[in-house]
Amino acid sequence: MPFHVEGLVAIIVFYLAILLVGIWAAWKTKNIGSSGDRSEAIIVGGRDIGLLVGGFTMTATWVGGGYINGTAEVVYVPGYGLAWAQAPIGYSLSLILGGLFFAKPMRSKGYVTMLDPFQQMYGKRMGGLLFIPALMGEMFWAAAIFSALGATISVIIDININISVIVSALIATMYTVVGGLYSVAYTDVVQLFCIFLGLWISVPFAMLHPAVEDIGRTAVKKVHQEPWLGNIKSLDVYTWIDNFLLLMLGGIPWQAYFQRVLSSSSAMYAQVLSFLAAFGCLVMALPAILIGAIGASTNWNQTEYGPTEPWRRQEADMILPIVLQYLCPVYISFFGLGAVSAAVMSSADSSILSASSMFARNIYQLSFRQNASDKEIVWVMRITVFVFGASATAMALLAKSVYGLWYLSSDLVYIIIFPQLLCVLFIKGTNTYGAITGYLFGLFLRITGGEPYLYLQPLIMYPGCYIDESGIYVQRFPFKTLAMLTSFLTNIAVSYLAKYLFESGTLPPKLDFLDAVVAKYSKEHMDKTTLVKNDNIILNELAPVNPRHSLTLNSTFTNKDAFSDIDSSPEAPNAKDN
């Protein structure tokens, strides 16, 4: 394949435009947060992101390279088709559920990151544990889409994959370091516009190519391959349900989502943004679905691609750039490539910023350096943006199973973080004992269920388990949802059991080694008290109350049961009920 100078110029123009927008956004908002809360301005944009920019940035966070390429791929692959394209509906419902049930309580309590309520309720130890799957999800997701971008660019303009990945990562990291959420949000507006325009311009040209059959006919009738509408076999129903629930419910507990929710100017705006993004995800999936259908309707013998179909060459995951390359005019394919590149960066920058935000606030500041200045937190965030960006780039270049690692980590977000989030927001009385036990049970059931992408054999053979062509056992049973429900119910059961054992006197207070029930012996809760009184941390970040000297610990924290003894103790003689 010849080197395309025009394609390289088009990519440079797209990248420079996005970089300039990111730098402009950082310059425009450089004075926001300058009075001492610059770190919060970087993480949640000063909580003044409007509906237009907020709707674009939340949509662009989901509509990334994996979303666009993956949707086209699954529609194209014989035996799957549109019936298995679960991401558009799954993520849209995820955003709707997030808006209905999660956005309002998170935004109204003034949290700064997704991990804040966990550290408030369960303490810094549990916050650190939950940071692990959250970080894995963000990092492996960024690495996977960087890897996809390198392969996409190499198909169309035939340049070295490593160079394209490194340059893309550098640009995304650069404007994220400079402007934080503001730069990410404003570049998302440009990127989403590029995705929409670039793909919709490409679709008519590809559809009118002489080698392409009528997609209405190939949807229901076998022409060059199986109909692209696809079907769900009876043996695969439970697998389909398991994957769909993972997308719908597991798509909620991501820092990238809650970063947009918490940046909204009000709780109502946070809900509206979620609904707008749900609609945006559906609309943005349409051209990807059509491109997948076009690929399934093409007689590749009549194209320069050759007589062998992409899926036979193990190139089904590249169907979108292949359609752009071989079924569209050169100038149109380059425009479409710019759209895909924009899609990748719109997700990668969000993941990198999300990971650095959680580390700087929940690990560095709240766990180790509670007296750290705002300037120190800002520099920690900037350094970790570079570190996490470099790590994601290295994984994209070196790892053999980046997508497999991302599948596993996204499963952990669904199985571990989602039930924990349900408990911390909606179930009264859960504590650290239940949270840790639920965490371990969910992790154990997921790991022992195996992972074909990583060639990880299962230790537990659920009903319907079978051996695939590569000799790996594959589960048909919805064991991921089983693991999630087990984690959720274990958290509740162990929390109430621990509460009963300590409060009834069955177990002595000295055995409360996690300081989760008998608060008067709790050093951990005293750490939380210090946090709230710290001048460097705004009170409403951790609790929905006003700063008053008469405030009691009982009214400050959501987990009131754990503090009932402290409020009546001699150490708080001036406390009174609100």
Textual characterization of the structure:
This protein has 578 residues and is an all-alpha fold. The protein folds into two domains: 5-31 and 61-426, Sodium/glucose cotransporter, CATH 1.20.1730; 427-518, no CATH class. It has 22 helices and two strands. It has helices spanning 5-28, 38-44, 51-62, 65-76, 87-108, 116-122, 124-157, 161-179, 181-207, 215-218, 237-250, 255-262, 267-296, 319-327, 330-368, 374-398, 402-426, 432-447, 479-503, 523-533, 553-556, 564-567, and strands at residues 466-467, 473-474. Strands 1-2 form a two-stranded antiparallel sheet. Helix 8 packs across helix 9 (181-207), helix 9 (181-207) runs parallel beside helix 13 (267-296) and helix 17 runs antiparallel to helix 18. The N and C termini lie far apart (74 Å). The relative contact order is 0.15. The model is unreliable at 520-578 (pLDDT under 50). GO terms for molecular function: choline:sodium symporter activity. Its main location: membrane. It is a multi-pass membrane protein.
Numbering strands along the chain, what is their spatial order in the largest sheet?
1-2
Helix content: 55-70%
What is the arithmetic mean of pLDDT? 82
In the CATH hierarchy, what is the superfamily of the largest domain? Sodium/glucose cotransporter
Keywords: Glycoprotein, Ion transport, Membrane, Neurotransmitter biosynthesis, Sodium, Sodium transport, Symport, Transmembrane, Transmembrane helix, Transport
Membrane topology: Multi-pass membrane protein
Family: Belongs to the sodium:solute symporter (SSF) (TC 2.A.21) family.
Subunit structure: Homooligomerizes at cell surface. Interacts with SEC14L1; may regulate SLC5A7.
